[in-house]
Design a protein that fits this description.
205 residues; alpha+beta; six-stranded mixed sheet; four-stranded mixed sheet; 15 strands
């Protein structure tokens, strides 16, 4: 997702970050508003290739039985971050425990403890997914972070979170079949070539 930091208006009564985020979401329907490290970012709606990759990546998770009674595969579900009093993100895709509805914290966002995996598909502001969100997800102790990197035409799999980073960061090229950690609840294999076949045009997104 492409994202830009949002400025706060100087006039009028002071608003909380969440109130400002609400206002931006109302002003820009379809845009994704997030708060990371106390900074609001606003990302425009994704392009068609981005959406197609997300649809394709859901299939192996569903075939492995992960969208069922024990876990669910969801797009655009809010994740409440421990990095700040109003921080939250909305990953492109997440694998969560099936009882996620019992773990709402606030602002329609959920406790990181129920997230087994998050996945992002990069767009023009790929640095957000490759840097800022790496630290955010690691601090939230998300066990597995997968990045479909259309900018560099590769797949990243990050595991073993520690403060501000992941201890293991594996990069996979087209032609590889990537087996995700068993900790997510089932055997899931991702075909890097199939996911990145649309990524060659990502530089223009």
């Amino acid at each position: 997702m492409s994202a830009a930091a949002a400025e706060h208006p100087c006039d009028g009564p002071s608003k909380s970050l969440l109130e400002t985020a609400d206002g931006l979401a109302e002003q820009h329907p379809g845009y994704r508003v997030e708060i990371i490290g106390g900074v609001i970012t606003v990302a425009p709606p994704p392009d068609g290739d981005h959406a197609s990759i997300l649809t394709d990546v859901v299939v192996p998770f569903a075939l492995a039985g992960l969208h069922g009674p024990e876990s669910r595969v969801l797009q655009n579900i809010g994740l409440w971050l421990p990095s700040g009093p109003e921080d939250f993100v909305i990953p492109d895709l997440a694998l969560v425990d099936a009882d996620y509805k019992d773990h709402v914290i606030k602002y329609q966002c959920y406790d990181p403890v129920i997230f087994r995996l998050v996945l992002e598909v990069t767009s023009s502001n790929y640095q957000m997914d490759l840097r800022n969100k790496v630290a955010a997800y690691a601090d939230a102790q998300i066990p597995v972070y997968v990045i479909v990197d259309r900018k560099h035409n590769r797949l990243h799999v990050l595991t073993d979170p520690c403060p501000g980073d992941y201890q293991n960061h594996r990069i996979h090229a087209p032609g590889e079949q990537v087996l995700l950690p068993e900790s997510i609840g089932a055997e899931v294999k991702l075909d890097v070539s199939a996911l990145l076949m649309l990524g060659e045009s990502a530089d223009s997104n």
